[in-house]
């Protein structure tokens, strides 16, 4: 899953969520990649517990790692780890997996591995998912706020006066201050570099000289960082829905704004051409959409008891949520049609899904963790004025999904990062598969190409599809990844392989 600060506000912003489906060494992973590892690695440090799935193949455990790898006196973090066991008679080794974010726990990708990965991977690999430091069930987890509606649904992203503009700044300031205050002991140590070091700690605890990796979305950034820092331990690595590793937060936001706007344009065009589309609007879904967004900015629509009315920032976030896959477009069409009739409940459902609202009305900490991790990876802090100056670029890149008239102030009020993310090279790691889909809004294909080009031996796979990440799109995309993971030397695909 990939969230990136984009055109709209931090507070009520489009911090986009993807729906993905997620040392010690011998020699270079590329040259040594097909060597099997012992069938029963020394993983006693985990003290695995059976999770309770129907066939007993899922276990959970914990791994203690340093908060600061350079200074053990600063204490430890407790990583929550899960694994789905391979068939012992067919086992190759372990496959680390990550769903993206940053900010999302990855243990579910092992617990529910049978719903995500093909049988070939399930039989041959122990699927190892963990909640990266600061996320999920790892402790301590990043926690900043509780009242999401106050921070993400209450502001006017097209303020009419100085008081409304100052309210946005004040809210962004309070959010950052809460994140810093509540997470003081770990905030400088939750960035991608340290998560990559945690990956190597997991590998070492499993007793494996080399290990394989399969990351989705932001997981591509994490995996590429790991491959850069620990190339000798890489057996194989798949980066699906890859980000542009050379882009800073501003450029990433601009790239993603273009991607989401393109997906929205496709959705509206298809809806206009299809009389069966709920939001058909007599063949002018584009005009109806623009009119609806303006009306919501002028007068928000009712949603549900005790919840805020649907305003422009909530509507844009809901629309963006649906752009992750064309499988969500019928739901969006119905929600837009309902909002046009004065009922914002359908759009609220998409909005809540974006922010990981749970059935009991609470929220997962993924958004708070996302922003904290992203800012601790970023070297630059823009001022309020510099943020405001970027607005025209975002509006030009995404006219419909960037209606804001002030900056996002995404990292403006966070402390400077002491260890920004390292430049990615993948030097010495061997062939790394980089997959992108043609209609990926969250990690556009142009940026995925940059990842493949940046890596020393990136092998680009282009998948035709209107969704984020490509593994599950078709038989070809699954087959090329699985063949490579099973045999990274013999089955590494040619660069620019296509899966139409």
Give the topology.
Blueprint: H1 29-32, E1 49-50, E2 58-66, E3 76-84, E4 93-98, H2 108-111, H3 119-124, E5 125-130, H4 148-152, H5 162-182, H6 192-206, E6 211-216, H7 218-229, E7 234-240, H8 249-273, H9 285-298, H10 312-322, H11 329-340, H12 345-354, H13 366-377, H14 384-389, H15 391-397, E8 432-437, H16 445-454, E9 458-463, H17 475-486, E10 497-499
Parallel strand pairs: 4-5, 4-6, 6-7, 7-8, 8-9, 9-10
Antiparallel strand pairs: 1-2, 2-3, 3-5
Helix pairs in contact: 6-7, 9-10, 10-12, 11-12
Short description:
The protein is of the alpha/beta class. It has helices spanning 29-32, 108-111, 119-124, 148-152, 162-182, 192-206, 218-229, 249-273, 285-298, 312-322, 329-340, 345-354, 366-377, 384-389, 391-397, 445-454, 475-486, and strands spanning 49-50, 58-66, 76-84, 93-98, 125-130, 211-216, 234-240, 432-437, 458-463, 497-499.
- Approximately what portion of the residues adopt beta-strand conformation? 5-15%
User: Quick one: CATH class of the domain at 29-140 and 188-248 and 421-499?
Assistant: Alpha Beta
Helical run tally: 17
The counted number of beta strands is 10
Classify the secondary structure makeup into a structural class. Answer: alpha/beta
Radius of gyration from CA coordinates: 22 Å
Q: What is the distance, rounded to the nearest whole angstrom, between the alpha carbons of the first and last residues? A: 23 Å
Question: At CATH's second level, what is the architecture of the domain at 29-140 and 188-248 and 421-499?
Answer: 3-Layer(aba) Sandwich
Low-confidence stretches: 3-44
Q: Order of helices and strands, N to C?
A: HEEEEHHEHHHEHEHHHHHHHHEHEHE
Largest sheet: 10 strands, mixed
CATH superfamily of the domain at 29-140 and 188-248 and 421-499: Alpha/Beta hydrolase fold, catalytic domain
CATH-derived topology of the domain at 29-140 and 188-248 and 421-499: Rossmann fold
Mean pLDDT, rounded to whole units?
89
